[in-house]
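Ticket opened by: R.M.
Priority: normal
Category: complex prediction / small molecule

The reporter submitted a protein together with manganese (II) ion and asked that the result be attached to this ticket for the collaborator who will pick it up next week. Submitted input follows.
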Amino acid sequence: MMNLIDLPYEINALDPIISARTIEFHHGKHLQAYVDNLNKLVAGTPFEAKPLEDIVKTSTGAIFNNAGQILNHNLYFTQFCKGGAPLAEGALKAQIERQWGSVEAFKAEFETKGVGLFGSGWVWLSAQEDGSLVITQEPNAGNPVTRGLKPLLTFDVWEHAYYLDYQNRRAAHLSALWKIVNWKVIESRYNR
Ligand code: MN
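Result attached by the on-call engineer:
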């Protein structure tokens, strides 16, 4: 039985980049629907007792779509905080600078891949087993765990994530999201 995650901040904490109205729909309606759907779909199946990540790795079709969207949104909503928290000196920052030359160059590529993703989906920063980093685009409910990657950071490019606040201006929304990323969370995902 999956439950809707609690947000680690007040509903208006990310305003105006993600307004309270968007959170109300995105967390309270869209994510809640994925949770309700998955609970119905797995009832009485072997998936019922499995951890969410295992369901994402081993399912297909409607179960995968709903489980993937729950995992994606759980990672998404818990990576933000009011005002953001900076990327500190440490292993993750050093690896980003090693691969991209600068944090700004990394952010630029991440935004470009988010803007360039056709239709609905997610752009991800993930770690490989050797600690190297990779940016990937995933359509629809995709999550990098299905390819053996450890997901660290994600921007949701489904229109429901930004349409109320930015309408069709996906690029403006993605570039503003950096202001609310809680890099402490991203660093702890990388170091775990
Ligand atoms: Mn979403």
